[in-house]
Design a protein that fits this description.
The complex is a heterodimer of chains A (157) and B (738). By secondary structure, chain A is α+β, with helices and mostly antiparallel strands. A 5-stranded mixed beta sheet of chain A has the order 2-1-5-3-4, with helices on both faces. In chain A, β3 and β4 form a beta hairpin. In chain A, α3 crosses α6. Chain B folds into 3 domains: 233 residues, Aldehyde Oxidoreductase, domain 4, CATH 3.30.365; 135 residues, Aldehyde Oxidoreductase, domain 3 (Alpha-Beta Complex); 258 residues, Aldehyde oxidase/xanthine dehydrogenase, molybdopterin binding domain (Aldehyde Oxidoreductase, domain 4). Chain B is built from 21 helices and 27 strands. Chain B is globular and about 80 Å long. In chain B, 56% of the residues are buried. The chains are: A alpha+beta (157), B alpha+beta (738). At the A-B interface, α1, α3, α4, α5 and α6 of A face α11 and α20 of B.
């Protein structure tokens, strides 16, 4: 048995302890916003938050998140607004992604938005070098210049 | 003249580019049929791509895949502008995968430009343009959507619908249609001050025959085209709600992990699946001709059990083949075969004989994988003699047809469910069938949906690759250092005609192609032959410039006197990049230019050498002439994307073959440009007002040479083989800028 909260909802699943969180979220819970990209924690498409920190869910066994609070892209805005809020508006990061017209194919962007959200939460005014070191997600469409602009704009707010 | 649909397409294809353009969007049969088959309630199709309901919702159906190029928005802008719709009234819908929305206009465009493209060849009987197969096209590729579907179909559909709405209003008011104008979804009669919304006229308009030659707007009349309008697909891509093929889901769904034969073209011999079958959640182990699949109730379980399957594949003559063998074979072909003519101008052999000096250089690039972020996948659900399917694709109708044919069902018994596409770049075009075929055969064994997924390793090792190409050059000079001959011998195949040709004014040119086949399967890869040839040509041009002591920019400008669009993008890029001005210490600029897919692109890369003696690309300045910009922001986005895609290939990209199989497995072995290695990109759109060019691909070709030309200045080393990462720049000997 594995028990954890996803976007404030507690789930108890009869699954193996070594099942990666990614496949528990996608195949067992049917929540598809979190993406499979590489399976080895290299590309970041599967990024979710565990207690607010970015984690690559494709290599994180469910046993490692027992009893913990997981946020996926679907729950990001609600989590940011606080669990008691009914607000489901976009977060500042999500809005910046629209304002800067960042996603192209968009497949990597769930992970990119999650990675940047936790990064800016811990480092609201990062340098370029800090951005380079922390945001290592792959975007095959090459949205990086726009991601950088959006991060700078968010940092200046 | 009335023609039925099939005859119509045949006639227009044979006519080529110009004569019947526009009709296919507005043929009576099409919108009538759409009204009959697709309409519920009082809404009406006015033309095949435009539906208007009484409350004035204007739905525009887009017969192309949205894979990040913003095509849903841009094509809707083209139709809506000609319609004179208010953009706020427009609803954008993906056209369903039914033959009513086949995009044969694309083929007409190609037929007019340079014949049918190779990636469509299998569908088309060239002598007769066999029609039945053309009906099955809903292809997105070749940077064609805007310039063919947009120009030939969407604008015409909008303009025709507008004239039909005007005619309906003229009837209603008993006035001449010449007295009527349109604006923001209204038809107006200025003389009497009357006006009606399009929604109030749609039912009447739909009864009319579409005009044969609706008049299109002049650019000065555009209200929507030319504006940087936000893409409609983006909001769903920031909150996790955008659905891709991989996101098809149902509670009773099963998942298949599959192991294909590692050496292309060989068959499965035997399987021991006893251990796999004993694993939790495993339903079946399925043996196919070239592969074995484990089907389970969760993908991870299927994948884990697959590792326990002991599969033996047949031996083949390719088992020992390596990249070095393939390269040696290519070099042998180049040495021994005269090949076939691609282009001959003047007498190159004589010029080489008489030349005061000749330089030679051999270039080569490796196979490349597409590596879309969404790994290949396909879900099929068989229920009796019907199937539902989900897959991210560049050709929905093609995939539906393929599933039907593999399953032995009539096409209309297969329902294709549209999703966004998590990257295409050519991988998801028709003929790259491996995932579709396997998913169909696996799902056929079940009556619940089965989702077959390639792991990242499968995706990289079972691709259809950008061909490896070798190109041997010679250039001849007279006593005045003028280039008098260009001699190019390269390994094929030619996927896009003309990519190896040069715009430069050189009197004698001999360009020939030799066989470049191997057992490695190949396909179109973003910008196709231009990705290899532009690296070769623009590098060798740079060698020529340095050989004669000319500035590479001035050299190009001098040899492009007859090509004002090339010259203009070079000029704009050079000025913006500060070419010829002072740079930070240790920085250099490399330049390259290419026309592809109807657009002209110049790129200037600012590069320095890092502490590890590897190049750092700081900035790329790009000027693009795509005629004019339908949506300037998506033009810029496609340029940025194309440059980074090409830069990834230039810096890191290589698929190598060892023991007949692909050596790379995942991103660490096939590295990508990321935030830390992504340059600043500055895009300048040159509005020449010429015919629209494509944008999905043209920014990719020049970047490799732009970077390596800068590396030459910084190190004195000419990079003649990609990727750059394989070169050792520790012994650098910078070249003086000319």
């Amino acid at each position: 048995m594995a028990t954890f909260k996803v976007n404030s909802v507690e789930h108890t699943l009869d699954i193996e302890p070594d099942m990666p969180l990614l496949w528990a979220i996608r195949d067992e819970l049917g929540m598809t916003g979190t993406k499979f990209g590489c399976g080895i924690a290299n590309c970041g498409a599967c990024t979710v938050h565990v207690n607010g920190s970015s984690v690559r869910s494709c290599v994180t066994p469910v046993s490692a998140v027992e009893g913990q609070e997981i946020t996926t892209i679907e729950g990001l805005a609600i989590a940011a607004a606080g669990t008691n809020s009914s607000t489901t508006d976009l977060t500042a990061v999500q809005q910046a992604w629209i304002d800067h017209q960042i996603p192209q194919c968009g497949y990597c962007q769930s992970g990119m938005v999650m990675a940047v959200s936790s990064f800016l939460a811990s480092n609201p005014n990062p340098t370029d070098a800090e951005i380079d070191a922390s945001i290592t997600n792959i975007c095959r469409c090459g949205s990086y210049p726009r991601v950088r602009k959006a991060i700078r704009a968010l940092a200046n707010v | 003249m009335k023609m039925n649909r099939r005859r119509f397409i045949l006639a227009s294809a044979i006519a080529g580019g110009g004569v019947l353009i526009g009709y296919s969007a507005t043929r009576p049969s099409r919108h009538r049929r759409a009204n009959k088959e697709l309409v519920q309630g009082p809404e009406r199709f006015i033309s095949s791509f435009i539906k208007i309901d009484p409350s004035n919702d204007i739905t525009i159906y887009i017969p192309h895949s949205e894979m990040g190029q913003g095509i849903h928005t841009s094509l809707s802008m083209m139709a809506a502008d000609e319609l004179d719709a208010a953009w706020e009234d427009v609803i954008i819908e993906q056209a369903p995968a039914i033959d009513l929305f086949a995009n044969g206009d694309l083929v007409k465009g190609f037929a007019g430009e340079f014949g049918v493209p190779s990636f469509l060849m299998g569908l088309v009987n060239v002598s007769s343009f066999s029609v039945a197969e053309l009906m099955n096209l809903q292809t997105t590729g070749g940077s064609t959507s805007i310039r063919y579907t947009g120009e030939y179909a969407m604008r015409t559909a909008g303009a025709a619908a507008r004239e039909m709405l005007i005619a309906a209003a003229a009837n209603r008011w008993s006035v001449s249609s010449t007295e009527l104008t349109t604006e923001l979804s209204y038809v107006q009669h200025n003389a009497s001050g009357r006006s009606l919304r399009f929604g109030e006229l749609a039912a009447d308009a739909a009864l009319l025959e579409p005009p044969e030659n609706p008049s299109l707007k002049d650019r000065s009349q555009f209200n929507i085209m030319g504006r940087a309008i936000s893409r409609n697909d983006i909001p769903a891509k920031v909150d996790g709600s955008a659905m891709y093929g991989l996101d098809a889901h149902s509670d009773d769904m099963l998942y298949a992990a599959i192991k294909l034969t590692p050496v292309f073209g060989t068959k499965l011999l035997s399987v021991d699946a006893s251990e796999a079958l004993a694993q939790r959640g495993v339903k079946r182990v399925i043996e196919l001709e070239d592969s074995v699949a484990v089907v389970a109730d969760n993908y991870w379980r299927a994948k884990k059990a697959l590792e326990l399957v002991n599969a033996t594949f047949e031996e083949s003559e390719f088992d020992k083949v390596s990249s070095a063998d393939i390269a040696a074979r290519f070099d042998r072909e180049l040495a021994e075969s005269n090949g076939s003519t691609d282009k001959e101008v003047g007498d190159t052999e004589a010029a080489l004989e008489e030349a005061a000096d000749v330089i030679e250089a051999s270039y080569r690039v490796p196979y490349l994988a597409h590596a879309a972020m969404e790994p290949m996948n396909c879900t099929v659900h068989f229920q009796g003699d019907h199937a539902d399917m989900w897959t991210s694709t560049q050709d929905a109708l093609g995939m539906r047809g393929r599933v039907a044919s593999v399953a032995g069902l009539p096409e209309e018994n297969v329902t294709f469910h549209q999703t966004y596409c998590g990257g295409g770049y050519g991988r998801r075009l028709p003929f790259n069938w491996n995932m579709i075929d396997h998913a169909t055969l696996i799902a056929k064994e079940f009556d619940v949906p089965v989702k077959t997924i390639f792991s990242r390793e499968d995706d990289m090792q079972q691709d259809y690759y950008r061909p490896a190409v070798h190109n041997n050059f010679k250039a001849a000079f007279d006593t005045n250092n003028k280039v008098i001959a260009w001699h190019s011998r390269f390994t094929g195949p030619i996927q896009v005609p003309g990519a190896s040709h040069i715009a430069y004014d050189i009197e004698n040119q001999s360009i020939r192609v030799v066989d470049g086949d191997s057992h490695v399967p190949i396909a179109a890869w973003r910008s196709v032959d231009h990705s290899q040839q532009t690296f070769f040509i623009e590098s060798f041009m740079d060698e020529i410039a340095h050989r004669v002591g000319m500035n590479p920019y001035q050299m190009r400008m001098g040899l492009l006197q007859e090509h004002p669009r090339h010259r203009k993008v070079l000029e704009v890029a050079a000025e913006a990049a500060g070419y010829g001005q002072n740079l930070p210490d240790g920085h250099a600029l490399g330049i390259a230019v290419q026309e592809s897919f109807g657009s002209f692109v110049a790129e200037i890369a600012e590069v320095s050498m890092g502490e590890e003696n590897q190049p750092i690309v700081h900035k790329v300045t790009c000027a693009v002439d795509c005629g004019w910009a339908v949506n300037p922001d998506t033009v810029e986005a496609q340029i940025e994307s194309g440059i980074i895609f090409g830069l990834t290939a230039a810096m890191y990209g290589e698929i190598t073959i060892e023991n007949g199989r692909v050596a790379q497995g995942n991103f660490p072995d096939y590295e990508m440009v990321r935030m830390a290695t992504s340059p600043e990109i500055e895009v300048h759109i040159v509005e020449s007002g010429e015919t629209l060019g494509g944008l999905g691909e043209p920014a990719t070709p020049p970047i490799a040479a732009a970077v390596t030309n800068a590396i030459y200045i910084l190190t004195g080393q000419r990079v003649r083989e990609l990727p750059i990462k394989n070169h050792d720049f520790s012994r650098s000997n910078p070249v003086a800028q000319v």
